[in-house]
Predict the structure.
Amino acid sequence: MKKNNLPLSTSITATTAVLGSAALLLGVLTSAPASAALSTAPVTLKVQYETTAAPEEKWKAIASEFTKKYPNVKIEFSAITNEAKGGPNLQVLSSDGAPDIGLIPLNSNVYTQLVKAKALVPLNGIFAADNTVKRIGPPADTLKQADGNYYAAPHSVVFYNVLWTNPDALKKAKVTLPADKHLTNVTQLIQISKKCEKAGYAGLAIGGKTNFQASWMFDAMMPSAVSDAALNNYINSYKEDEKITAKWTDIGILKTLRALEQIAKGGVYQKGYLGMDLDQATAVFTSGKSCMLLGGTWMPGGAFEADTKKGTMKFTPGFAVLPSVVTGAKSTFTPYYGDAFGVPTKSKNRDWALELLRYSVSDEGQRIGVLEASGNFPAVNTVPKSAYTKIPKSVLDVLAHVEEYGAKSGWTSEVPGAYGQAFLNPLIQRLQEGKTTAVQITKDLQAELLKVRKNGL
Amino acid sequence: MTNLKVESSGELQPPKQGRVFRSKKKKIGLDGTNIRSAKFALIPVFLLLFIFLGLPVINSIQLSFSRWGGLGPLEPVGTQNYKDLFSDEQMRYSARITILYAFSVAIGVVAIATVLAAAVSAGVRGHKFYKVVWFFPGIAPPTAVAIFWSSGFQPETGIVNTILGKIGLRDDYAWLASSDTALYPVIFVGIWIAVGFAFLVILGAIEQIPISVREAATVDGANIRQQFFKITLPLIKPVMLIMLTLQIIWTFNGFTVVWAMTTGGPADSTSILPILAYKEAFRFGRFGTAAAMAVIAGIFLMIIGSLGIRLSRSEQR
């Protein structure tokens, strides 16, 4: 064996050189793509976003940072409408022209069918890396499918069922809201609306024509009328292997539906609400014609800001929480993680798509894309509050309220749309019109549950 | 006038039709070789028809006997989709309102277009201007028209309610917000958007009537009203029937106007069959029942189309 006769100083120098090289190499590696399969050849990624301002800004901000890190990557966008994302987009995502990252609402038929047909790339790598499961928290559990895989990554969380209020209108109507912002009961909501009407304002503006707003209030009020265990069962019992422990004909559901009927009959909503979409309802509110608007946390940074800039919105909104249907209980705002992103198996740049998606759920991606660009809340819980600088104050107030009183899952956001929102929304519209009864809807829901369990979705 | 020839007998004889026909047949090239060439030339046409019409129809029929969520293989279910549809209250309701919508729009369109065309043809003051203006709604994008009118029917602020208010009627009625009234504005807009095209077609038919016929009627003492009902209407009836048939088919299959105005609501009260089929397929992932609806609607429209063509032909005779 040949002996190494190098002097000590030379050995130290050599060792230092090796360590230095290793450190340099490590440095290079950390800025290189995480996946070894990623090439440095030019690549163009196609990303879908919804045709509203915030998601576009989010992806543009993320793309800007990502392409700085990886100059060989170019990112192109394709916009889809709110209507298309939950329906016809299925054909796009399963076609040969599929984008590399697709927008997939978790409560839509698109997600159900893509998962069923295994047309999405498992995202287990993303969820395993960077402690993502823990950083997302409980919603990550619902994202895990029966086969143990994750197929969609959330990008932000919004809260809906926020009753945005017009303080000027409420003052003129001589309405004082409770200090904790919780309306005590349905009667109080009706009385507030009547006072508003007397003062020349509509009560609560809603987009009754949309395929979701009629059922939103069900999401807010139902959890206050049933136990947490029952809520959990309502959310999961459509799965064949889940035992039905809570029936739709139970009293809590009936009370919730009767409350919705009472609200509609009590003249709480603006005139013609069933013929208006959410944009029209928002315009009623921002133009100062209603005391309240049923909306969500994306509005202050979106429509409110735009209308304030245009000069059509001349007040700073406050907020309130919908009443509970059970005395002593409190309704909450409803969280929505649902507009998630996935990588179709037809993606032509799968590895780079996964890398971009991973970056979008990293703390940096969430800060740049969600907090700073779109003004929503990040889907992960590890971005420090100090980064919440661009979130409007009214939205931060809502967040503080959520931290104090909690937020419970909305049934229509959690279950597949064919069984949930698409089924329930027209029934509640009929209830609002007096064309069906609360009892009948509970029976319809129970029958649909049994049908879905038998035939699948 | 019939051609007459002077025969050797000196009597006038009609021409020998058979011989003339045979020579014509040869002239237009229908001999054996050319028939084969013609058949050969038709192959691409039939191929294209099969690819773009036949295959989708076959596929739809196959789909209507299957369960399919939008991805993966079809699961055959026999006639279950049809059974489900016939026992479904919403389907029966949608079929009824689709027929009501299609026939109301078609009758309204043809009636209004005929009156407008007759007025323009009669040379009312400004007829050249009206000829252009009445066609405008037909070239406007249907979505834009529907959105314009859905605003027009809003309570208090909408143009329709404003006009109703000016003439002393209620100005706060939310036409599109009630399932009892939402279909009426939709029918109105359906007529408004389609009348321009029908007007031009019927005007063309009226102007084909020889002026001598009208002059003769005037000489015989017929007034304008009598001329319209006794001469114009009977002579343009075949065109009106074809227009009516086409309008029923187009409106029956229409989606844009209804979707843009009501998205089928409130509470599915304006969900005509194309909208119901869309919801079945894309919101509920039941492409099989959606295809079954399309097949049933297709058969119904084929019957309507055949009846329309038959009636139109019998009127032409």
In short: The two ends of chain B are 20 Å apart (CA to CA). Chain B has 14 helices and four strands. Chain B has two domains: 5-64, 88-316.
